[in-house]
Specification:
Family: Belongs to the cytochrome b family.
Main location: mitochondrion
Number of helices: 14
Number of strands: 2
CATH architecture of the largest domain: Up-down Bundle
Shape: globular
Structural class: mainly alpha
CATH topology of the largest domain: Cytochrome Bc1 Complex, Chain C
Order of helices and strands: HEHHHHHHHEHHHHHH
Protein name: Cytochrome b
Distance between the termini: 67 Å
Pfam family, one: Cytochrom_B_C
CATH superfamily of the largest domain: Cytochrome Bc1 Complex, Chain C
Subcellular location: Mitochondrion inner membrane
Radius of gyration: 23 Å
């Protein structure tokens, strides 16, 4: 029986990692999946070792992090690898999504693959937010207070929901314990979803830059693409090593090195850089409830792309109008990221509102209109 089970496992590994047929023309833009898998493994491993020394208590959380940094052997490396890999995680996932948008990886028969990816993105953000609270510096405390308070906008039971999350009437020991437990658990849920993502990918195979099926021109995963993946994985590990050893706080916030003080509000409360675009969307809408709905909607709206993309051509490489629209979306995303880091004063508020309107219009109007327009142009060209 054990030999049979081992044989089944080896067959699965061989099917996914060795003999899996991949389109011959996929570029390095298809390497972000393996990079994200590497980041997830690093986060789980470093997180487990950090959890051995961390104390989820409002009086000891900050000092326990300092204890890890100063007294635990290689503790500084564990903490900085964990913190900076989170930033790389989001760099890679945003690049992965941008590539998927450009090459229409959401189109059938990969709708399930895309949907699982969107769920992974939402859980990644939740996990990152929970982790940002755990060091319990100034930005941790006030970030947790502001973000959890958003749920008070929910009609009827919003206030009760906030107190349920807090475990009391403010961010306290109960809150920190709950956040720590969830932050420890969610990466394993992410790992299970990543496995489901791979299963869905294996069903129909990877897409390719031409947007057409490539069943007649495919290579096995190993050795052609495993070594290609290793190139970018080693480059990532090199960049991570340089940042951890020389610039460990380049992507962090200095206020989080100040112990949490509920009696002193920081001059500017902002989340980590990778959450700034959604924070900008939240602030751009004056109504609190509508702002919260827009923030969550800005993530879930990715799910409607398989239905709103009406083009008969897959991908943007042969669609000049859609290619231009895609780059407008990328630029707008970076504008939202910049607006989220600024104080909510004119003209940043107005720019944020325009960028937010464009963000939603891109999914609901621009993508379907450009698709219909390009279809009509193609039909005219065929008739002539």
């Amino acid at each position: 029986m054990r030999l049979l089970k081992g044989h089944v496992i080896l067959r699965l590994l061989n099917s996914y990692l060795v003999d899996s047929p991949q389109p011959a023309n996929i570029s390095y833009l298809w390497n972000f999946g393996s990079l994200l898998g590497t980041c997830l493994i690093l986060q789980i491993l470093t997180g487990v070792f950090l959890a051995m020394h961390y104390q989820p208590h409002v009086d000891f959380a900050f000092s326990s992090v300092e204890h890890i940094m100063r007294d635990v052997n290689a503790g500084w490396a564990l903490r900085y690898v964990h913190a900076n890999t989170a930033s790389f995680f989001f760099i890679f996932v945003y690049a992965h999504i941008a590539r998927g948008l450009y090459y229409s990886s959401y189109r059938e028969p990969r709708g399930l693959l895309w949907s699982i990816g969107v769920i992974i993105l939402v859980l990644m953000m939740a996990t990152a937010f929970l982790g940002y609270v755990l060091p319990y510096g100034q930005m941790s405390l006030w970030g947790a207070t502001v973000i959890t308070n958003l749920l008070s906008a929910v009609p009827v039971f919003g206030k009760d929901l906030v107190e349920l999350i807090w475990g009391g009437f403010s961010v306290s020991n109960a809150t920190l314990n709950r956040f720590f437990s969830l932050h420890f658990l969610l990466p394993f849920v992410l790992a299970a979803l990543a496995a489901g993502h791979l299963l869905a990918l294996h069903e129909h195979g990877s897409s390719n830059p031409n947007g057409v099926t490539g069943n007649g021109d495919r290579y096995t995963m190993h050795p052609y693409f495993t070594f290609k993946d290793l190139v970018t994985i080693f480059l990532f590990l090199l960049a991570l090593s340089i940042i951890v050893c020389f610039y460990p706080n380049i992507m962090g916030h200095s206020d989080n090195y100040i112990p949490a003080n509920p009696m002193q509000t920081p001059p500017s409360i902002v989340p980590e850089w990778y959450l700034l675009p959604y924070y900008a969307i939240l602030r751009s809408i004056p109504n609190k409830l509508l702002g919260v709905l827009a923030m969550f909607g800005s993530l879930l709206i990715l799910l409607i792309l398989p239905f709103t993309d009406l083009s008969r051509v897959r991908g943007s490489q042969f669609r000049p109008a859609m290619k231009f629209a895609h780059w407008l979306f990328i630029v707008n995303f970076f504008i939202l990221m910049w607006i989220g880091s600024q104080h909510p004063n004119p003209p940043f508020v107005e720019i944020g509102q325009i960028s937010t309107a464009f963000y939603f219009a891109w999914f609901l109007l621009i993508v379907p209109v450009v698709g219909v327009f390009e279809n009509s142009v193609f039909d005219l060209a065929v008739e002539k």
